[in-house]
Amino acid sequence: MNPKALFNISYGLYIVTSKNGDNINGQTANALIQVTAEPPALAIGLNNKNLTNEYIKKSKVFVVSILSQDAPLNMIGQFGFKSGRDTDKFENINHKQGKTGAPIILDNTLAYLEAKVTHEMDVGTHTIFVGEIVESDVLKDGKPMTYAYYHQVKRGTTPKTAPTYQKEEIKPASSTRYKCFICGYIYDQEKGDPDGGIAPGTPFEDIPDTWTCPTCGASKDQFKKV
Ligand code: FE
Fold first, then answer.
1. What percent of the chain has pLDDT over 90?
2. Is residue 192 very low, low, confident or very high in pLDDT (cuts 50, 70, 90)?
3. Ligand 1: centre distance to CA 125 (Å)
4. Which of 21, 50, 75, 83 is the least buried, fewest Cβ under 10 Å from its Cβ?
5. Segments making up each domain of the chain, as ranges
6. CA 181–ligand 1 middle distance (angstroms)
7. Dist. CA 132 → ligand 1 center (Å)
8. Fold of 177-225
């Protein structure tokens, strides 16, 4: 089997949210498809260890916020690499309560889909939820974020809990590359981190200690030379 064959499947990038009583949670997700048109329904695969999965099983509702291509890495990382069990993922994120009671993300969101769960299938590490869309709207025009754009252009990384996670190949050693050992993000001296205020060409050693991983927010001491 050649696992690289799987890299040819294309995906979008979304934040899936749900609720449990008064509590809300959400996570980044890519394994989403529309499965039927009449009625309009979605299928989504989420890791059984994730709090959002637990909330959907309890409330039977979820909301998909479709991210725009300009959604920043730290927003995707906040929902993708942190757990709602120990952080408030909605801090500094504009959101509103949807018809289902689950939150709709308003920042960097092109459109949202609210669904009620109609089917649930345990597939081992993950559960596939099928939900009928009960409400949806377009919030603004723009290009939706694709998984390829997130990886290739924004240089984002994939958490171990994602259905599409594969162990990363470490690229040939180069003295200018440092890897975040929390999320796998690679700092490349040539490219710097312009969004984080680090100009291209800045050696890793010269980055201020206050700088954090653009994907997961880890501190500089979580990086190792690769
Ligand atoms: Fe990181």
1. 72
2. very high
3. 23
4. 21
5. 11-152, 177-225
6. 7
7. 35
8. Rubrerythrin, domain 2 (2.20.28)
| pLDDT tens column, 99-132 | 999 999 999 999 999 999 999 999 999 999 999 9
Q: Cα of 177 to ligand 1 centre, how many Å?
A: 14
Q: Report the C-alpha gap between 40 and 37 in whole angstroms.
A: 4
Report the alpha-carbon distance of residue 9 to residue 151 in Å, rounded: 13
The SS3 of residue 220 is helix
Instruction: Measure 129 CA to ligand 1 centroid, in angstroms.
Output: 29
Q: How far is CA 128 from the centre of its chain?
A: 17
CATH number for the segment(s) 11-152: 2.30.110.10
CA–centroid distance, residue 77 to ligand 1 (Å)? 8
Using the predicted structure, report yes or no on whether residue 165 has a pLDDT greater than 70.
yes
Instruction: Name the pLDDT band for 74 (thresholds 50, 70, 90).
Output: confident
